[in-house]
Structure formats: C-alpha cells, structure tokens
Amino acid sequence: MLGGSLMMMTGLLIVAGVSCSLNVSDSCQMELARLQEQERLLKDQLQQQELLLHRLQLLNQAGNRNHAQTHQVQDTQLTDCSQVFTAGFNLSGLYRIQPSSSPSALTVYCDMTEGGGWTVVQRRLNGSETFNRSWSEYKDGFGDMTAEFWLGNEILHHITTQGNYSLKINLEDFDDQQRYAEYKNLRVADEKDHYRLSFGAFEGTAGDALSGGHLAAESEWASHQGMKFSTYDQDNDNYRGNCAQEDRGGWWFNKCHSAHLNGVYYPRGHYSSLTDDGVVWYPWRGWWYSLKTTVMKLRPTDYQESI
Ligand SMILES: *[C@@H]1O[C@H](CO)[C@@H](O)[C@H](O)[C@H]1NC(C)=O
Ligand SMILES: *[C@@H]1O[C@H](CO)[C@@H](O)[C@H](O)[C@H]1NC(C)=O
Ligand SMILES: *[C@@H]1O[C@H](CO)[C@@H](O)[C@H](O)[C@H]1NC(C)=O
Ligand SMILES: *[C@@H]1O[C@H](CO)[C@@H](O)[C@H](O)[C@H]1NC(C)=O
Ligand SMILES: *[C@@H]1O[C@H](CO)[C@@H](O)[C@H](O)[C@H]1NC(C)=O
Ligand SMILES: [Ca+2]
To answer: Hey, what's the signal peptide range on this chain (predicted)?
Structure first.
C-alpha cells in the first residue's frame, strides 16, 4: 500500500512539475516543495518497512537449517552482495541481486564473513559435483550454491564490469592448512570475447598462481592473465591440444595452467594421473596435489569494512 501511495505521489510531482514550469508562482513552488517532502518521507517509510520485512524473514529462518531458501523478500536494486551487506543483512546465505547490466535478477550465495559483502563465484568441498562441463553449463552456472558450484561466466561478466572488483580465493588442503590469494581489479569479458580474464595486483599467502607461479619463464605458458575461457567443447587455449578436455574442467587455460580450481576432485590430496588435472594451485602445493576446499568470491575493491 505504501508503494501505491509513493507511485501516486510521484505522479502528482510530475503534474506539479509541469504546471510549475508553465506558471512560476510562489504558491506553486511551495506546493511542489511540500509534495517533495512528502515523497521523501514516504520513501523513508517504505525503506524502513522493507528492512523490517527482511529482518522478520531472517528471524523466521533463524532456527531453519535449510539454507536453500533465500533470505531476502524481494529484489530491490542490490547489484552484489556488498550492497546486500550494507542494506543490513549480515548472515551468509542466498540472496537476490541484479547486477546493473544484467537482464534479470538472480540468486547468489553471499559470504558475510571476512568483513562481509562477498559474492561467491565458486566452491569445492567434497567432490559432489562434476566440473567437466560444457561451454553453456559454465556460461549459465551449475551445482548447488550451498555446496559445490560455479556461478556462471555470464553473471561473472555482469558483476565485474560494474566497477573495480577484487577476487579473493580461500584454499585449504587436507592437513587443514589455509592460504588465500587476492587479486585487485578482476574482470571477465563478455561471451564474444570468450569471457577473457584480466586482473591486477596480487596479495596473499598462497602464491600468485594466476600470474603463472613465481618463475618468469613459466608465466609465458602458465599465466592466466588475458586468457580466454575454455571448456571441452570450446578450445580457446594456447595449447595445440585441448586443456579443458585433458584437465577435465573449464578454466582460463593458457598452455595449460598453474592454477586450475575447476579440476578433478581427488579426495586425498596427493594424486597421480596422466596430466595435472586435480584442483591445483601450483605455487602452494604443486601440480600433483589436489586441494580439499576452494572458495572464489568477489567484492568491490574499494569496499570499506565496517567495525
Ligand atoms: C499564475 O498563477 C497565479 C496564482 O496561482 C494566477 O493568479 C495567474 O493568473 C497565473 N498566471 C498564468 C499565466 O497562468
Ligand atoms: C547482525 O545484525 C544484527 C541486527 O541487524 C545484529 O544484532 C548483530 O549483532 C549483527 N551481527 C554481526 C556479526 O554483525
Ligand atoms: C558434499 O557436501 C554437501 C554440503 O555439505 C552435502 O550436501 C553433500 O551430501 C556432500 N556430498 C558428498 C558426496 O559428500
Ligand atoms: C567430460 O564430459 C564429456 C561430456 O559429457 C565427456 O564426453 C568426456 O568423456 C568427459 N571427460 C572426462 C575425462 O570425464
Ligand atoms: C580501478 O582501479 C584502478 C587502480 O586501482 C584505476 O586505475 C581504474 O581507473 C579503476 N577503474 C574503475 C572503473 O574505477
Ligand atoms: Ca588448444
């Protein structure tokens, strides 16, 4: 009902605006100011009611373990999880967002830990999903957002072209050691450009695998900077063969990789195979160790952590 009166108010404002421009009298200007003030008040009320609704929804779900339900009631104009966090939602879980260039809203998993506001792009944790998937599956995303999944290249493109985004990668091995890698200004191009990857400065404890490990000679063939995305059915890599087919997962392959977080899940870490097709972050555990847990997540680079 508040929404309805807000719309009516906006209609009145437009009418008032038109007649004022025809007759610039004081009384008319005063009426306009009064209406604007009323509009502002109604907007405030509307926003507060929405927040209240959201809070009630959260409370309702507090004892509910089923995270498959979204926490949010409706898509407002939240374009990523940092805005969801700023709007007052500090519980990790599923929320609706709509990046500014995205044609429709979608559900994403928001990680509200580590300062909050992270839109999760990928997760591996137990090998329940296969990551040997087609171009169209990587484009649209697959898996279960509360477990293993790939968010989707199309939405990755829409999120990262909204501004400067940082990608944080959390890694864990089977000895429960944890490392991270963070890249500033990460961008994923559109499908016409094969979802090409670019990124800025590295920071972290896991080593800079996306730039090709730490040896300059390696980065020529192992760097993922500027690489197009490849899948078994769309070979855009720099290798005479097909990296995605050999390494059984879609990724920004070069010739082929020094990081491949969409590789085959080996449940014991060390593995042997014809090729380095595990869940690999080369500078940390090398090509022949497949990680236990990975999370890739995005947040605006200039995000200010509160508290
Ligand atoms: C402008 O409005 C005033 C008072 O509202 C009225 O007296 C005046 O005739 C109007 N002028 C025109 C040009 O419509
Ligand atoms: C989350 O928000 C609620 C109310 O909005 C607040 O009471 C609580 O302290 C917050 N929790 C954290 C960890 O910030
Ligand atoms: C993997 O983890 C998810 C989420 O915890 C769980 O639902 C699923 O059953 C697990 N699958 C396997 C194969 O362990
Ligand atoms: C990957 O998936 C494709 C299509 O389902 C299949 O043809 C291929 O054999 C799979 N590759 C491996 C190594 O599992
Ligand atoms: C992103 O940040 C870089 C440097 O940190 C800056 O040069 C660039 O202009 C920024 N781009 C946008 C779109 O804000
Ligand atoms: Ca090739």
So the answer is: 1-20
